[in-house]
Amino acid sequence: MQLRHRWPITCHIIPVNVHINSYKSSPITYACNNELRKCTDCLGWAARDASGVLSPYKFTRRAVQSDDVSIKITHCGVCYAEVVFPRNKHGDAIYPLVPGHEIAGIVQEVGSNVSGFKVGDHVGVGTYVNSCRECDYCNGRLEVYCEKGVVYTYNRPDFDGTITQGGFSTYIVVHQRYCFRIPDAYPLASAAPLLCAGITVYSPMMRHKMNQPGKSLGVIGLGGLGHMAVKFGKALGLNVTALAKSLDFIIDTVSADHSFDFYLSLLKTAGVLVVLGVPNEVKLKPRSLILGMKSISGSGVGGTKEMQEMLDFCAAHKIYPNIEIIPIQYVNEAIERLIKKDVKYRFVVDIENSLK
Ligand SMILES: [Zn+2]
Ligand SMILES: [Zn+2]
């Protein structure tokens, strides 16, 4: 019998099916015996039911294995996913559920095969922590589109059968492939939102060659994603505009239902509109695409290669998300404010100083 977990579309994560049992034959299944396991208590804040209210929760991470990095978490961003999953909006919540997938911190231990990271390095973890590492997408460093289903940072079964838990916690253990260098001079609090909001915008911009100065970019929705699109656009020398005619590219971050015909009419010939928000459906008249050879495209976070590029790019160009730093004790209120769009533009939880 094969267990199938349906993973519906959410925030800006792509939908995939996760075939739990298919991992059992995988050569990368973790050897989890008691000798390898070091039981260290991890303190997190978890939702216990569909109210989504977070409260303190103690649990155990896996022991550090040869390719693993253990990270003392200093900061974690608050993404709209922190509304969707703790409140079981898709009916797949596994409680207790520790959310958080914009994780920044400091390496505290590395496995014997880890060469790219050492204790004390500043690092980040984004929306996924595992993938098959064998398929075409993994080989192309686009792991988020892994054919076997990427393992998300929380609320998913990992290859060892444990349920992943997110970054509203004191530390995380992750395979080195899904861990990213944060340049030393870059503030860890600012780095956190890059790990989901930043990469979600950066990836489609690079894929559609929106790194050529002089091209024109329109942004719909100025929130956690949209404000990063504006910052990237300016750093890349694009004409970032309030919505006007003749745009090369539009980034649409709006999750409320809306008609796409108007926005498509603003594109020049062969222009592209990329959908990053999650309205219930995309409504448009086909002629909006046909006349002018226009495209509508989707995108979900990004692969590991472009994640590192994006972090280095932000450091080189001094691009910082606008953040409001909060203690973990404020997180439930922050999530309520996020729902009301009462944040400019990202909450970041100061884990290091408040989660004790
Ligand atoms: Zn997110
Ligand atoms: Zn794969």
From TrEMBL:
User: Which CDD domains does this entry report, sorted A to Z?
Assistant: CAD1
The prosthetic group or cofactor this protein requires is: Zn(2+)
PROSITE patterns with a match to the protein in the record: ADH_ZINC
A single Gene Ontology molecular function, please?
zinc ion binding
Q: Where is the Enoyl reductase (ER) domain?
A: 52-349
Q: Which residues form a coiled coil?
A: none
This protein is called what? Putative cinnamyl alcohol dehydrogenase 1
State the organism named in the record: Prunus yedoensis var. nudiflora
